[in-house]
Amino acid sequence: MTLIRIPTPLRPYTEGLREIDVDGKTVGIILQEVASKYPSIQPHLFDSEGNLRAYVNIFINEEDIRNLSGHETHVGENDKLMIVPSIAGGSGESETLPFVDHAALRTNQASIITLLLIAFVADLALVSSIVALVMLLGTLIKKPGFLPIYRALRWIGAVKPDRLRDYSEPHQFAQGFGSVVLFLATGAFLIDLPILGWTLVGIVIFLAGLNLFLGFCVGCAVYYWFNRLGLPFFQRVAPLDRTPGSRPPREETI
Description:
The protein is an alpha+beta fold. It contains eight helices and seven strands, in the order ββααββββαααβααα.
């Protein structure tokens, strides 16, 4: 048996284990065995063609296998393997991520919060229903629902783009989830349950505020959790250089 050490970012995919004992005579066989025992780790180690991802570094007894025989490097019983993923800012996973304009996302969140607060203060349930519809339409076209407001603010120079390495799909899911909650609120208003309706509106305000002010997207975290469960339609894997749902590091702006 060979001991392979799992880095912190990958432990959620190995049931929290720091080290795993695996049978195998070469590095390649051992990695395939790890992916077989823990399927959710496979997309983090291998690409769609079965090749080890460029940002994943494998060391055997502190020696990079690239300096040895690569995947064919022989592994003895007393050898120790270690997976070392590249971090953001280096040549690694972050460089393969597309750019997402987080200024547009924040404008979207601010618009949602503002309109829903106006709806609550003025007791205008119809406004929350309109916000739900805008969010749903935005999700369907894969854009922030209040993108026109962002474009208008950019045109007058009030905001500037803030493009970060990220996936857009988790944010689209989060927006869609928020629209569903607001449609449930609309249903509550229609059956004369205003307290329930405004509570649901408050949940959306809270989630949008958490994202806007603290940089944590709960809907995105849920998306990545669904991905780990292997659910269909949740194809994006959480980047290794950040907590799932957290805003990308500032140094990745362009």
